[in-house]
Amino acid sequence: MFDGLLFELILSVVAAHLVMVPLGIKWQFRPLQIVARALFMSMICLVALMLLPDEWGLWIRFAAGVCLAILQIPLVILPFLYADPERAVKIAEDIVLSPADGRIIYVKKSTKGVLPLGEKRGETFELRELLGISGFDDDCILVGITMNFLDVHVNRAPVTGVLTRITDAGDSYLSLRKPLAVIRNSRRTSIFESGNCSVAVVQIASRMVRRIVGFHKEGTRIGQGDRFGMIRLGSQVDVAVPGSQVEDVLVSKGDLVVAGVTPLMRLAGIHRNDRGTE
Predict the structure, then answer these.
(1) What pTM was estimated for this model as a whole?
(2) Of 48, 110, 153, 216, which cross-links 140 as Cys (Cβ 3.0–4.6 Å)?
């Protein structure tokens, strides 16, 4: 009985990982996310395989395990598309918080409103939605955050301030792995004005995303860490701040960030005034 159970367990784990690992790599899941979902899938596969007739051979049982793992894909992904947990937000006037859950994919500096597009080819593009806005025509710091299917897709305000401008642009849905997706894909740019500080948040759709949702209209005052919009499935959120307003960048490429919790930048010339959590 023990040998049979051990065999079924190994078969279930192998089948689940065979399905989940390639998908996790394609959808840019983090290693822990891949392993956790694969183990969850393997437990369900184990229970199902134990109910199969004993006379079924190895390959038939293995094929059944793979099929069961494939059928579970929606089960391990769909619940996360609507996740919206509460966050303990520490209000700090001199800090720009991450507006999104995910991983930092770049920290770039623009020159006169122009950013490097491709690291290898030296291509550039203009921040068209930001041109003409005070501060963004000069040097600017841009932090890119990529979100996968399993990240919380509700976005939160990086600073306390007034939502002064909302601009929609782009009409394509390229893979976000392509550099041109940043300027061609459908995106929404929201400008937050907080005293002497301006922060732009750019929500960028991917080829699997067809809708970016906003929760507020222009002119609304939003608290730091409050929800202001969402973007589903695999997607990207960029944060831009005029370089003259940034004292220090607190993240680097590869760092994991949490919306409304992780500090991205420290602002220059602002006296710190923490007001606890909310």
Answers:
(1) 0.72
(2) 110
